[in-house]
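Problem 3 from the worked examples.
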Amino acid sequence: MNTSDFDGTAARSVAERLRTWEWIYLGYLLFLPAQPYFSPDPAWWEWPLTITVCAATVLLYALALLRGPSGWNLWASLVPMAVLGALATPFNAAASVLFIYAAAAAGNALPWPVARRWFTALTVLDCVTALLSQVPLLYRLLGFASALVMVWVVGLLELQQRDRRQELENQRLRTSQVELLATLAERERIARDLHDLLGHSLTAVVMRAQLTKELVLADPQRARAEAEEIERNAREALAAVRSTVTGWRRTSIRAELEVARRTLAGTGVALQVSCAEEPALVAATEHELGLALREAVTNVARHARASTCRIGLDTDGERVRLVIADDGIGGDAAEGTGLTGLRERVARLGGAVQRSGSAGTTLTITVPKAVVG
């Protein structure tokens, strides 16, 4: 079921309406005072008995509904209701309504095999009390017949409503779980994108700021140009943060190659690009590869101490391959957060990242053709 069609709030709303119907059953208690009211010569104790039975029924029924299907609380409500009905019915045929309440409470909490036996026991008890009743035969027959039918009707309805409520609760929990997972995924996306985007932009800002400081006296004109580049990098970083948070940012290989050119130029690294044929990529794939390229170039600018960086993009018909190589210090340094995030990005595309090289570092990123548009 689609969560847009049926969310957790709707599930709670329907479940609450179903619970409301269980309290409406208390309307059957109006039958109890009917007998002494219409009786031509009621005994003095009939009204106190009726009021006591009604109050006890409301208390026991509420106990069964509010405390739920916990063993002791359930039977502490069901058994007294049945006993009270058996004791009161011989003097007031309408008191057989207590068997209906007991059936409703049983259907609300007991599994079907146990509830079925309980309904049967209530039916037998209703029969016995009808035979022992001191009220006129017509009242006995009406009370017995109505209770007999309603015990099973109400009990089965409660079973059905309980199953429906359970289904709604399960749906609500599934919806909540999906929403939680979506929230966590969105947080992870924002964290990854902010790291990749800000890591690159702030690295460029720091390096250009250091260069500008050195050029202020030696070459004021170039220092001014570097300061303007710092301003542009800062504005790009601000725009990237805003678009990342709103989830609308998309980058491309071509755009990231231009960013790489500017970044590496600011650190004195020559860039060589080879791309025999630019493959057509779906937007999501190109976005992820673009961010992977940005992370790799940032690592070259910050750590490689290289003079040249080579970027190649090609396809062999089954896989697209992006290669970033430098002639820097290389080595087997431990992977940082950036490279770990890069591997995670590529893994989501069904691809892989290979890192190699002792004199310089080569990153080879491959993506299967399945994600190529």
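Problem 4, a separate protein:
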Amino acid sequence: MPVSLQTADHQAKKWTQTKQSTTEDLFKASCPNNHCASKQIIQSAFSQPLDGNHISSSKHGFVYALYHAYSHHHHLTIRPDDVWVAILNQINFYVNAHAEELRSFFVAHEGQKELTVVEAGTIRTVDLGALAVKMTNEIQKNVLDPELQKWIMPEFSTTTANDKVVAAIQMMGTMQKYFSYTVCLLCGIPSVTLLGERDDWELLLKKLDKIPQLGKEPAQFAELLTPVLKRFVACFDDPASPDLRDFWGRCAHYYSGGSGPTYLSGWVTAFCFWDEDGKPLNHGRPGEWATGCELDGVAFHRVETEDIPAGYASVPVKLNDNGMEYDTMMLAGMIGIQASSSGQLLEGASETGLDSIQPVSGWWMYEKTKESGSSVQIEEVYVTEV
């Protein structure tokens, strides 16, 4: 329960400091040097105009609030979160000034290690503050102190989502000599429908148990598939789970290499473990696998897009049709994508259309030509939003 103290006998005086009307005005007045170096505000804690509150600018909101309250006779209200952020800010300055002295206390690596969080959406639709909080999870995975994140992030009865974002950015700033940070925004899946019953997906997960019996590489393959299929099952238990939303947001990430190679990463690469000659596509270098997706401690490798293997396999079959022999092949697998309409309006349009897709499996039997054996490179078209 909050407590109020009568700390003086005089009445309070009126606050006369200028009110800032917009987040832009507040940024400019409170952080003038940073404002001069900025091109635009992308997001902030203030999603609405400041008209509903009288907020004045301040170089240090906590220190100057105490100063003004004491010197100019104003009632003062503070929260543990306010005090903690003021403390974190000071620690930030100290750690950055003594980064090398403190390196062995915080991390085991040299230089800066790049950390990446990936989210489905665009710069205008994602919650960048929430991604800052998410980044603290990545920091925690790479520091020596197992309690660092828990110690920094506030959990007071007064703590708001905004307080957690503020503390998260403070944590990122404090660790900036040891880490660099990248936020990768990618197109996402509007919705996912898993057909069948939960028991079907549990049965699918159970089928993985036999794969490790085939050898070391198959065991690695099953290890990649397990956390993916477990989450498929979990979708039936809590389809609204934020963790599952995050899971689907990390399914497939396309990286353009400019003049160099392009890559596909995300947990979908679990289904690209071997090429069509049965050679592993992870190349046995775990240090190169972590490209923005890790589930249950399992890091997923990236695959050059031109190396994505076929989703089908073929087998020769001798066909004897009443004495007439044919040299044939049977081919089966995932051979297409079916499009349909959900009946909902298309994004940015006032009409419906083909907006839903589903993998298609199929098979063929065909008679081989005498020259069979040559191969044709199939190029999939990758479309990225700009």
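Solution to problem 4. Confidence is low (pLDDT under 50) at residues 285-292, 381-386. The first strand starts at residue 113 and ends at 120.
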